[in-house]
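During the reporting period the student researcher (J.K.) took over the structure-prediction task from the postdoctoral fellow and processed the backlog of single-chain submissions. One of the processed entries is reproduced below for the supervisory committee.
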Amino acid sequence: MVNAFLKPWPIKGPDFINRHRVMTRINAVFPGRLLGVGNPEPGSSLAFCRAFSPVPELAKLNRAPHVGRGWAAFVAATEDAGQGVLSEACRSVVGDVIATWDGTDPQMGTQWRDDVVAILPPRDRPGAAFALTCALASYRVDQPLIDAVRAVHPSDAALVSIAAWASGHAVRRIAAWL
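J.K. obtained the following structure tokens:
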């Protein structure tokens, strides 16, 4: 999702500053103190998540219960996000493509996604194209694609929800390979 939303910084600081052990310590400790976070208990944030079911693709994480439950909560949250914005037909079509994805980079251009979304009603196509791009080639998200989605789903929340849903499905697909 970082590729989909963040633009590259025009100015980059020297790498040695970020690798210096003092900066590492500051970067690790300061945000927690700033936010007032002391010594959190593993799994304590799961109290803020709705009930969720285990995710078969992430079963390997069950040996680390808090991690496995955290990822299951993530998957449940992304499913909720997608259901709130994308139609059932859109989620089905995009989900089927992600479920058969072999990890390779899609071909150049947009024909690979345009062919898939062509079977959907016109209103669903921008969201489906955005979801497919976020899941399979997030670095290809560009302003015209975002503008097309915003024509149908104008809010930032809708845009992030679509990207979250797509990334949740991509995570599940990749986890199945591990």
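The committee noted the following: DSSP finds nine helices and no strands in the chain.
J.K. will present the remaining backlog at the next meeting.
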